[in-house]
Structure formats: structure tokens, C-alpha cells
Amino acid sequence: MEKRRLGTSDVNITPIIMGTWQAGKKMWVGIEDADSIRTIRAAFEAGITTIDTAEVYGEGHSERIVAEALSDVRSQVEYATKVFPNHLKYNLVIEACERSLKNLKTDYIDLYQIHWPSGSFQTEVVPIEETMSALNYLKEQGKIRAIGVSNFSRAQLEQAAQYGRIDSLQPPYSLFWRQVEKDAMPYCIENNISILAYSPLAQGLLTGKFTGEHKFDPLDNRAKNKLFQGENFVRAQQALDKLRPIAQRHNCTLAQLALAWLIAQPQTHAIAGARYPEQAIENAQAAAVQLSEEELQEIDAIGRIVSDRFEGDSVMWDW
């Protein structure tokens, strides 16, 4: 899989990234560590060398699982992790990074990201200048190679960029959830900031495997995902029906088609999670699907059957 440069940094990442929220187990149901380890390893062997995790995914459990899967090939992979908004004070950023380094069994993190803006989830508001000062220090020390932000609006991104180089933005972005296109994407394109799209398959909805009868466990975060509810879900099924012939034309799955469309967008990479090795391998194969300009536009229009309902809505869940 051909790598792409992360922003203006010296880090190169794969267009498909292995997402490991589920490996942390918290807010997911039926996840086994052995499966997670095998799946992350399968992703690597299929060509996905960039792995995204976070300290909050199971309070470090996901990071430790990533290390268990990939420590022996550390020099061949790129680790991206995140600091949660309850740790954005200067000293707390430093401490959080040290914990992540220990969990990941490494002496450097390729991309270290602010997971949510300060004040999210009733956390104390910390000036972005203070947080960026800590991140710049970690970068100078060689503990991190690049700085990124996640779930930031354009205005928040612009403010953070006043205090240091931001090389990536991680927003929710898929064919069915596209607010970033009108908000931060133009700024990212103008300033060469990579977009690392999370939930690129709309938490599995774009696989086409969920029917109206499916009921999520109340502990599963998808039970509160707006896309799976009422009229939104009905529209999603209509869109999927229109996407199926295009996928068949390319001899690929709906998921692969959705990922191929996403990584064809400007500066965009897709963070795709997987529970099992075969899913990770399937995700990796999406990088080989080549779509024409006409097909990209056709897929774009189909996606709007769903995405246009969420104009101005920034959070995918009813939390």
C-alpha cells in the first residue's frame, strides 16, 4: 500500500488506517483480546502500517493490545494515539504521553493528538496555548513526531495552529456523515493538514449488513448512533441499494466502495476498525479500488440522501 505524507511532517502513513477503539472493549460488546491482537496483526500483514488508538480506549487497554500485536515490527509501523480532554493541562499532557509510551512499549509516538477540544465531557477548560506548549515540548524531546487534533471545528483548529504546527485533523467523516467538508476541510487543504476520517463506514452501516430488525446491546455505543435510528436508517438502506450496482461493477464490497470513495477525497485517509482478521484484510484491499471521476460524483450524490439530513450536526451520537 503506497504511503502518503502526514501533513508537512516526516511521518508517512497508509491511506487505510487500523482503528482500535473496539480493542479497548469499553463501550463495545463481545470483544476478545485474542481476536483484537490477531486482527491488528492481519491488518499489518495486509499492508496497513498506521494504527490509531487513544488513552481513553479502555483506559489504556487498546494501546497495550496494539503493543502486544506489533512490538516486534515497531520500526515498520506508525502509532497514532490521543490525549483525552481531562489531561490537557501542561503537566497532565506530559504524564499522559508517558503512560501511552509505556502502554505502547515504545520510546516515541508518530502522531499524538488532542482527542476532543478542552471542556468536552464537562472537563475543565484549559487554554489551547498551554496544551500546545506541552505538545511542542514533547516534539522537541523526540517523544512525538507530529501533532494532531481530533473533533476540532475549523475555528478551534485555526486557534490551535497559532501555537504550533498541526499536521492532522481527525473528524467523523464518511459517505453518510460529511460536516467536515463544509467546515474544516477547506482550511486543511489550504494548509496541508491531513484528514484522518474516523467512522468511515458509519460504524458499520455502510457495510450493508444491518437490517431494520437489528437491535444493538444498550452498552454498545452504536445503540445511540443517530444514523441507525428511524428515518435516517430508512434513508441509509435506500442509499445502499443504489450503491450496490457500483460495488458489483468493481467486484468489491459496499464497505470497500465506501472506503475507496473516502480516500479519494482531498488529503483524506480512513481509520477503519475491525473485530476480526478477515475484516481488516477486506479494509486493506479497498486501497486498490480505483473509481473514475464520474463514479466518485455518482457515489457523492447517493451519499447525500443520508448526509444532507445532518446539516450542522457535529456529533454522531445522542449522548
Strand numbers in spatial order across the main sheet: 3-4-5-6-7-8-9-10
* Secondary-structure element order, N to C: EEEHEHEHEHEHEHEHHEHH
CATH architecture annotation? Alpha-Beta Barrel
Choose one word for the global shape.
globular
Helix content: 25-40%
Largest sheet data: 8 strands, parallel, barrel
CATH topology (fold) name: TIM Barrel
Average pLDDT, rounded to a whole number, is 95
User: Which class do the helix and strand fractions yield?
Assistant: alpha/beta
Oligomer: single chain
Any overview of this molecule?
This protein has ten helices and ten strands. The chain has 319 residues and is an alpha/beta fold. It has one domain: TIM Barrel. The strands form two sheets. An eight-stranded parallel beta barrel has the order 3-4-5-6-7-8-9-10, surrounded by five helices. The two termini are 37 Å apart. The model has no long low-confidence stretch (mean pLDDT 95).
